[in-house]
Amino acid sequence: MRSRRTALASVIRIAAVGGLLALEACAFSNTPLEPWRPIKSRDDASTGPTATAHPLVTLLPVDGNSLHRTPTPDPARETPVIRSEPIYYVVQRGDTLQEIADIYQITVDAIMAVNDLASPNILHVGTTLVVPAPDLQVPGPTYKILPDSELVLGPASHLFDLHASIMLSRGALLDIREEIDERIYNGAEIVELVAGRYSVNPRLLLAILEYQGRWLTKEEIRSSIQLYPLDYQEQGFEGLFNQLSWAADQLNMGYYLWHAGWEGPFLFSNGVAINPGEGLNAGTVGVQYLFSQLYLADEWREVVSGHGFHTTFSKLFEDPFSRAIEPLLPPNLAQLPLQLPFEPNRTWAYTGGPHNAWGDGAGWAALDFAPPGFSSGCVTSYEWVVAVASGLVLRAEGGAVIQDLDSDGYEGTGWVILYMHVEERDRVQAGTYLRAGDRIGHPSCEGGRSTGTHVHLARKYNGQWISADGSIPFNLDGWISGGWGNEYEGTLSRGNVTLHACECRAPTNRISR
Questions:
Q1: CATH ID of 347-512, from 2.70.70.10, 3.90.950.20, 3.40.50.970, 1.50.10.10
Q2: SS3 assignment, position 152
Q3: For residue 186, what are the CA distances in angstroms to 166, 172, 200, 264, 277?
Q4: Which of 80, 308, 361, 386 is most buried by a 10 A CB count?
């Protein structure tokens, strides 16, 4: 069983380093902040009680001479070979223009322009399309915009009071109200919701809002972006929630692709291709990727230089490298002992191998398991999802249960487990301490579109989603996860037994404790 979400072909072919849903930002200080200033470092005596820090939060000293070369040095990688001649492609049944564009590393807009297509959604089988060669330009800037720990909802996130900052800003963001899932959210709550769902730093989302529309410092916003607050003017992405969700997805796309070994190029709507500069880190690539979807090449270079977006971020929240926490993932990181997410002597089905847990860009951190039974689709189940380890429940709503394995109350520190599609009936409450094997709730289709009743399981560490087919695979009662580079396809192996993920119930995917 799986959640139906469109994934770019470039992501489908790469095993990225994690991704999944968390429904709110982590714990924040209750002390009001100055307008557009973060809580200061705990080494500053003037901060008083607001400076209380988690033991895992170690802010690195800032060296102005090397600020944008360290931290997060990135090893050299090969420059991708970009084709220089057009391709003539005959449309096959089932093709989409986006898939063709992804395969041949060009944009949909560029293909449409050359072929004089009126709509990206209409293709005729047998038509020969000219797929132009990208216009390869010199590599992009090497300027580091922010460290990895400032892109994710990481260890320093609890040092920031999102609500107080927005209240003191007195910008147009204060006036926003939107209905989401039958509830009215204000601007701060929308930012918090998106930050938690995508595990993206709320400071970064606010800085993007400010850069794109001055939503934090202007009371009157130009009419052209009131419907599209980030100026991403695509039908279906109206409103703050949709715009920020799209932006968080793009940030994650660049971030996790870079961790997975992606070498570029950035593709622009007019057919220009630009390879990433040397020595970048994943956090910087995530920001560059987002802005490559919003600007053409010349403007993009200015945005991602030292005088572009980084200046706006620093004016709002001081330099992001002053809060760098490195390494975000320790070199000796190992998974804590985990068990399968269902009760003993019950046979479930392994239905989903490594895949995105939320959106299209957050990496392949999730596995799916469906309860026993002969019915298909979204049916009521009386089977129990149980805790894979001991820890504190931080969130329990919207189909999601988020469990903090170090029980410190901070979602951005240490190991965190997300159980998705947990029915509200009998579901555990936030604030409950669970021991491994304790009941959480029943599998369902709650919390997003799904083809059938199941539970969706993922891990993250220090805010970064950990891939199910990477260097730290799942180990569930000795079952080790693996994949082949195709989303939802994968294996669980223990000893000489290997199970294959299948959206079915068959001998090859039955699993029990």
A1: 2.70.70.10
A2: strand
A3: 11, 11, 19, 37, 39
A4: 361
Q: What is the CA radius of gyration of the chain?
A: 23
Q: How many residues does the chain have?
A: 513
Which residues have a Cβ under 8 Å from the Cβ of 91 and sit 6 or more positions away? Answer: 100, 123, 124, 125, 126, 127, 128, 129
The pLDDT of residue 59 is 52
CB contact at 8 A, 296 and 110? no
Low-confidence ranges of the chain (pLDDT < 70): 1-75
Contact of 239 with 178, CB cutoff 8 Å? yes
Please state at what angle helix 240-259 crosses helix 202-213, rounded to 10 degrees.
120
Q: How far apart are CA 371 and CA 348, in angstroms?
A: 5
Task: Look up residue 263 and give its two tokens.
Answer: 């070498």
For the stretch 292-342, pLDDT in tens is 999 999 999 999 998 999 999 999 999 898 888 888 999 899 999 999 999
Q: Which distant-in-sequence residues (6+ apart) come within 8 Å of 298 by Cβ?
A: none
Task: Tell whether domain 87-132 is in CATH 3.10.350.10.
Answer: yes
Residue 375: the pLDDT is: 82
Name the region of 238 (left: φ>0; alpha: ψ -120 to 50; beta: rest): beta
| DSSP characters over 359-373 | TTTS-S-EEEEE-S-
In angstroms, the Cα distances linking 243 to 46, 65, 212, 294, 361 are: 37, 36, 11, 12, 15
Helices 202-213 and 187-198: crossing angle in degrees, nearest 10, is 130
